[in-house]
Fold this protein.
Amino acid sequence: MAGNTFGKLFKVTSFGESHGHSIGIVIEGCPAGLEIDLPFIQSELDRRRPGQSEITTSRNEADKVEIISGVFNSLTTGTPICLLIKNKDYKSEDYDHLKDNYRPSHADFVYDSKYGHRDHRGGGRSSARETATRVAAGAIAKLYLRSYNINIHAGVTQVGTIKVPGKENKFDWSVCETNAVRCPDSNYAEKMSALILETKKAGNSLGGIISCEIKNCPPGIGEPVFDKLHADLAKAMISINAVKGFEIGSGFSAASMKGSEHNDLFQNENDSITTKTNNSGGIQGGISNGMPIYFNVAFKPTATIMKDQSSVDKAGKEIMLESKGRHDPCVVPRAVPIVEAMAALVLTDHLLRSKTNKI
Amino acid sequence: MAGNTFGKLFKVTSFGESHGHSIGIVIEGCPAGLEIDLPFIQSELDRRRPGQSEITTSRNEADKVEIISGVFNSLTTGTPICLLIKNKDYKSEDYDHLKDNYRPSHADFVYDSKYGHRDHRGGGRSSARETATRVAAGAIAKLYLRSYNINIHAGVTQVGTIKVPGKENKFDWSVCETNAVRCPDSNYAEKMSALILETKKAGNSLGGIISCEIKNCPPGIGEPVFDKLHADLAKAMISINAVKGFEIGSGFSAASMKGSEHNDLFQNENDSITTKTNNSGGIQGGISNGMPIYFNVAFKPTATIMKDQSSVDKAGKEIMLESKGRHDPCVVPRAVPIVEAMAALVLTDHLLRSKTNKI
Amino acid sequence: MAGNTFGKLFKVTSFGESHGHSIGIVIEGCPAGLEIDLPFIQSELDRRRPGQSEITTSRNEADKVEIISGVFNSLTTGTPICLLIKNKDYKSEDYDHLKDNYRPSHADFVYDSKYGHRDHRGGGRSSARETATRVAAGAIAKLYLRSYNINIHAGVTQVGTIKVPGKENKFDWSVCETNAVRCPDSNYAEKMSALILETKKAGNSLGGIISCEIKNCPPGIGEPVFDKLHADLAKAMISINAVKGFEIGSGFSAASMKGSEHNDLFQNENDSITTKTNNSGGIQGGISNGMPIYFNVAFKPTATIMKDQSSVDKAGKEIMLESKGRHDPCVVPRAVPIVEAMAALVLTDHLLRSKTNKI
Amino acid sequence: MAGNTFGKLFKVTSFGESHGHSIGIVIEGCPAGLEIDLPFIQSELDRRRPGQSEITTSRNEADKVEIISGVFNSLTTGTPICLLIKNKDYKSEDYDHLKDNYRPSHADFVYDSKYGHRDHRGGGRSSARETATRVAAGAIAKLYLRSYNINIHAGVTQVGTIKVPGKENKFDWSVCETNAVRCPDSNYAEKMSALILETKKAGNSLGGIISCEIKNCPPGIGEPVFDKLHADLAKAMISINAVKGFEIGSGFSAASMKGSEHNDLFQNENDSITTKTNNSGGIQGGISNGMPIYFNVAFKPTATIMKDQSSVDKAGKEIMLESKGRHDPCVVPRAVPIVEAMAALVLTDHLLRSKTNKI
């Protein structure tokens, strides 16, 4: 049983390979009557698209999105929305030498193990190119969330060993779109940028951390006991290429805290129930409590590096792999809109799910 | 839309409240012909049951499991397996004062927000008591995994600030069941135990980390692009009460590594393709590669502490909450079998899902 | 992948075998705050229970239903509702001779083919005893539908060759519960009753037809293009033991009608849009149009008859099967509440699904 | 929650409107390694396409199918297969007068009720044009079923009052593709053809019945208790536009039969267990028994007729509707490949589902 569908009520099914005809996504369950702002969808894709700055890959895709169905007179009709993005600037010949060879820490070997054969061109389905469709669908989810005044902001808070100090929920997200790294702190953005360029020159790559905050989520969203809101956020984030970890609220630091420090005491603030601290990260028992939701996502360094590496081929023979192709020296700047998109998909799905909680 | 079902092919639906008649779980999709070892299932529940040692809660539940359906002559029949565990030693009167008051960092407030009312006795459905049913179902999954020789071991590698040094995949798991903390290192187990007792005496609580390793998972398990094996593991773990973080393989440390350090180079080891390092944690592109799968799960300190805390009541009035009831000063020792059970559910589900990957 | 779950938002998972410990069902997604009328649920089960009259089987089960979870202070809590019914009056020894033999037109052979072995006692999971759990869950769905003033009535309109004349939607359903056959016409009820008793005496069995009408369903319920309201009704009905056919509105007679006869012309009736005829059976394009929904369900004659029949055993050897055990000479009188229950499950599920159709 | 997805393991999600950019379908879960015969897929679409003979609509669509993803070197890769069919010969202006008016027995009114607005051009999403995508996906399912030697044949056995006599499972299906009506009997085909043309001339329309037979389905396919094989077939068929009824095996005639006539006695035929009769229609207890599966599907007459009809507009005002546009006087000839396609989707899905029935 395949796994290309995400969400239950706001359900997306993605398709397409890196060097195939197109990539695309079908959204089922978007309520009818939502106004579709196509330029906004495109602007979200532009934030993710390759070739946008000197610190990203040089593959140049316009990533022009086309609406195939489900929208009439700029309004959603309640029928499935198909979004299509053509593949254009691919150089499949760059991948000819990989047909029978396995790149380290890529999915080449496991796809062959699983399916018996694979589309080796540009990583085929395992390429992060697929995430463009998530951003497109996520943009429609964001349009829906606007009507709730819910907004989602992510930014890069660590690149390699450079880490912006401070609590995740105290960042100024508006700074992110003013620098190529998408860091909420301009000074750190410069340092990160310099490190990325230096690492690129050395033919190496970097990992990093993206932090995300969701504001104005009303209390009551999330479905115990398995589909807890943070459990679905975790799945959404870990499903993004290159992600190795997820933590919500206090996260891993909670392990070394005491209950008396960690507990978020309730208070009455202007006739609204809030908590004095927010170690819970806005979610308790799997359900939003009205406080900001915030979490961190850890990314590994890009697997493609400009260094020769030992590996094996399909027959199991040990080989030396030459490095070719275009890639990002660090994926996190372009992954910011992906993190936001996945968060938007989770929130929208759970908001719709909550509509039938009570009589 | 509710969220009490987990898994697609090996699908469990859990039900029951902390102080209700019983808790239980229905397993759908367990292949017919699996031999059911009831004492083994019971022994797994015994590892989780309250009152098992001085470092756990004193609520004393036998947690005797009963098979209601789906098994005939000790073999599964392919029909749904219902497992039932009666609630016995509950003291609902301990919770009378909580009917209209919200405990800090518990799910009282959000359940009321979501559902309009709640069963306040012992936390109702939000109680970790529900996880007993996961352990019962997970035990059946483990029986299935035995036929693949897949084994799953978890242990406590951090309690409060005491952390066992060393890589997650180098632990001697057999040590875990020899100490009450379930730590893979006896010396650290003693230190942890002492800390837990001391903290309990002080009326406070502790968090911790559980590490888990899955051995002998064949390559090819996991379903891109959303139902990646580690994405489903993440969801499974984060869905456990009190969990705040999940990381696989290199995890959060990947953020500060370089590609040349992080990449796992393939090699041919005795005619089998393996990797020289295992930063991937046994999963690449969301699919198992045959190497050990290992991950860490971070738990927050128990929310119930023996200290008075400020809070609010249902009407929003600020109140002072007295602490009552029985609880674990640190949940991780009892959470070890829960982590294993959820991992077993994910693995079994994905093994079954992989049966139709190829012609 | 097993198939014991029905519905998407109001989702039921049934479990249990004819001669096992209990049968039961878990309802997920019932909105919180619904008042549970336990005597009503029991009364629905009483309509289905064996031994209720001389024209039904003599197996005598009280079919006492117990609520295990999900209800607190008589209100649903939004958490899973588990309903349990103990098996009591079973005579497994009546089935010993069937362990290795296949009864004609029963599921013995196919269960062995599918699962490798089977619980042969009373038909195990394939027994219509399982439908008691559907009636229990359907009763809760009916309680939910009450708040919409939607009511569902079914009755027996054919037994063997005796057929009540007249259009399906013109029956007086209140008559049904006044006779043992559950026929909406008292005169025909007597004829049917006599035929059933006579057939029983002859050791034979009869089929029949149940008609069902749903009143006050609002327009807009049903989900194109696959989950059309009548498509889900069809699946629900055909999934009932012994059912061979389903038709909605004009049904099979539509095949020989002309468009000009069949089209239901819209009119404005007291400021409400209705149709002059109702060949559509209340559903157009898979969506309710506000007119009464009505359909027919065809049942085959009971497979168990009091006559020796030729058959084969597990090894394929041809044998002569003696007839034993207790059974209904005609299942339709007891199937009336099952048809209603399944209709109630479909309607409730689709009503909840419709909550997110529009912004 | 929308309903544009069908199947669990071989899962299709359809999208697109009659007069939009394209219609399409995404197939998830097709096993990797299946050889894709594109001309065969196209030939199946040609059997359904409009304008193929004088008894069908004159809308002329090439219905050229394009594979967007999931196939590499003519083999499926295990990743989602997206199939796209462009809309070309549409005349949206023919529908301008329907923007605010409701056609009798069409879905105009209910779409407005459900979604608040609708794409009125050519019926939008409610148009039977959507079924082209089912045929395309069904063709791939047929390619999969070929490896099991399972074949599916449907044909028209009734048009208006003209009915081919004889049992459904005794037809010569090879005759169907030799006449425009797709009737398994050439003489009746001529009579039907004449009736269709005559009715067309009179501006009226006809209903009919399609019979279908599935040969060589192995025993053991189908998932009790809800996802019985015939329950899923029923849902699949009733989900097709204009369908009003479904019956399997003996169908509605079973209602008037006795158990002794209806029971299918097992026998040993050349070391294989078969039944002497096949009133079960190849399915018992929801599971295939190895005998041919056969069923009938009843279609209503086309709702569009060339006669003026009274109706109402969006505001509820009574109006007189002029008839315009192109349509089929009888849909059953073109619906034959749709019935086969839906049957193929059900069978493929259930074959895959059966892979995990046993250890």
User: Anything to note?
Assistant: The two ends of chain D are 35 Å apart (CA to CA). The first strand of chain D starts at residue 5 and ends at 6. Residues 12 and 27 of chain D are 4 Å apart (CA to CA).
